[in-house]
Specification:
Blueprint lengths: L6 E5 L7 E6 L9 E3 L1 H10 L4 E2 L5 H4 L6
Parallel strand pairs: 2-4
Antiparallel strand pairs: 1-2, 1-3
């Protein structure tokens, strides 16, 4: 079985399909979206006001966006 991607971007439903949440690749809380690079996940968190980091897998912590 292939290794999961390191990062994942989940997209909303509907016409706009904007990025909705970002996840670590191992997170099982989403089934829609696509694998992503670290850079694209950071870009989504910086530029899409409605996008959030998954509260379960905490990619923001792994990305170093939170203080210890």
């Amino acid at each position: 079985m292939p290794e999961p991607p390191r990062w994942w971007i989940e997209y909303g439903i509907g016409v706009s399909r904007l990025p909705d949440r970002v996840h670590t690749g191992a997170c099982r809380m989403t089934n829609r979206g696509k694998p992503a690079t670290r850079e694209s996940v950071m870009e989504v968190l910086r530029t899409v006001p409605s996008a959030i980091a998954c509260p379960l897998c905490r990619p923001d912590s792994e990305l170093g966006l939170l203080d210890s």
